[in-house]
Amino acid sequence: MEGKTKCPYCKQNVVVEVPDGSRGIQRTKCPNCGMNIKVEVTEREETVETPIHPLLKQKPSKALNIAGFLLIITSILGIIMGSSFLLFENVAMGGEGIYEGRVIDVKNNPVKNASIYVADNEIIKIGKTDNRGYFSINITTGKHKILIEKEGYISKKATIGVFPFKPILKEKFLMERGEGIKEEKKLTAIIFDTMPMMFSLVLILSIPPLIGGIFCFMKRYDIVVIICAVFGIFSIGFFIGTILSIVALFIVIIHREEFATI
After folding, report:
1. Domain segments of the chain: what residues?
2. Mind listing the pLDDT tens digit for each residue in 111-138?
3. CA distances (Å), 215 to each of 60, 124, 198, 207, in order?
4. CA–CA gap between residue 128 and residue 115 (Å, rounded)
5. Is the pTM for the entire model greater than 0.70?
6. What is the CATH number of domain 93-194?
7. Could you tell me which of 58, 67, 22, 56 has the C-alpha nearest to residue 41?
């Protein structure tokens, strides 16, 4: 019978012959170099065949597709929010709004019956403060200058911003004893000045979520998707986009192992 071995002299793998039924150490000749060599004959182990079952195809998760959909919606909302203001600023800020404020002295006491004027092009009296120092005026939306006067006090000329919705805050105006006039710029006016920049930033921050959403559907570049989702949180998108991006980020982190390794 024949068997395979490695010759200790020529170092070649060769097929040698030994008597049929031999067991243990046997002498034979290397067919390659002709040297006599010893080989150990053992019983042949039968090969055990293991059945190979067909691979069960695992149904892919839809989690990343959902995350991608949420990120794309975030991007769309942000783009609509940013571009609508930039393109239709005059329309968005058209019409009338309500501005409310309070006039106080240095001791935080209300200044009653202080006269309120609009001082844009010409000075027009439009109201006065009540017993608690509050005043409310109807005026066109946008930035305006108002003048507050009260006998015995330094007049206050302030730049304000009026929005086309009910005011969230009532700005305070501090009046000091004396004569003359002081100017100041209120927070609402500062917001008006920064709004174009803010909405431009919203528009820019809305692009990464779109890229992240596409990569989610492709199941590629998990790090990029996570970064894009973070950008989506700050894109605001009518505030709904922030929530959607947080949910998408949570899904991506949980199912991160489903991204293909490149």
Report:
1. 2-41, 63-87+198-258, 93-194
2. 999 999 999 989 999 999 999 999 999 9
3. 16, 59, 27, 13
4. 4
5. no
6. 2.60.40.1120
7. 22
